[in-house]
Design a protein that fits this description.
Number of helices: 2
Distance between the termini: 43 Å
Helix content: 55-70%
Largest sheet: none
Structural class: mainly alpha
Strand content: under 5%
Number of strands: 0
Oligomer: single chain
Radius of gyration: 21 Å
Length: about 100
């Protein structure tokens, strides 16, 4: 199935991009604090936290998708619930 490979590739790309964004935000925060722009530095620190969380999430998602192999459907972002249609028939429960 080509969908898991595309999902894996996009997760890896997103993880790398957000890691680069995190590094650039750290540099921008340091420069802002050195120049005395405390409010801007604080905003950059908050952006660093957001970018690092996104990098962790997408990196973990890519590792989980690659670990499951070709059986992944790309919907690993939430819990999987059993299919209610494949359970016991409702005719026996009505009696």
């Amino acid at each position: 199935m080509p969908a898991p490979a595309a999902s894996l590739s996009s997760s890896r790309v997103m993880a790398r991009c957000t890691a680069v964004l995190c590094a650039l935000a750290v540099i921008a925060a340091v420069v802002s604090f050195v120049k005395g722009f405390w409010i801007a530095g604080t905003v950059w620190v908050l952006l660093t936290g957001l970018a690092s969380n996104m990098a962790w999430y997408y990196g973990r998602r890519a590792r989980r998708t690659s670990a499951t192999g070709s059986s992944a459907t790309g919907s690993s972002s939430g819990p999987s619930y059993p299919d209610t249609a494949s359970g016991p028939s409702s005719s026996g429960a009505a009696s």
